[in-house]
Amino acid sequence: MKQVDVTIMGQSYVLACPEGGESGLRDAVAQVDREMSTIRAKGKVKSRERIAVLAALNLAYEASAQGSAPAAKARTSGDDQSHIDALIRKLDQALSEDGRLL
């Protein structure tokens, strides 16, 4: 297994990567970095852990919306954003005390 040095939101990480998977891993890292940086830029969330959780939720939601579930395909982009905003509000409420779920 190969080790790859990557940077997400200014912090370096060493990740294990199977041979031939470095390109895919770097693409995933870039996507996570973009999502986390976007959340941080909005200024409402400061904690790296909360930013990471929100980014993971956003990326997972996007991935599920691209799936074949009829309900996911039926949503419009406005509905998607409303749903994401509701998830973010629920997560913010649940994590109102930093570290509560960790």
* Class inferred from helices and paired strands: alpha+beta
- Portion in beta strands: 5-15%
What helical percentage do the residues reach? Answer: 55-70%
The total beta strand count reads 2
Strand order of the largest sheet: 1-2
End-to-end separation: 29 Å
Task: Walk me through what this model shows.
The chain is an alpha+beta fold. The chain contains four helices and two strands, in the order ββαααα. It has one domain. It has helices at 22-42, 48-65, 70-74, 77-94; strands spanning 2-8, 11-17. Strands 1-2 form a two-stranded antiparallel sheet. The relative contact order is 0.11.
Record the SSE blueprint.
Blueprint: E1 2-8, E2 11-17, H1 22-42, H2 48-65, H3 70-74, H4 77-94
Helix pairs in contact: 1-2, 2-4
Compact description:
By secondary structure, this protein is of the alpha+beta class. 61% of the residues lie in helices and 14% in strands.
Task: List the keywords.
102 residues, globular, 2 strands, two-stranded antiparallel sheet, alpha+beta
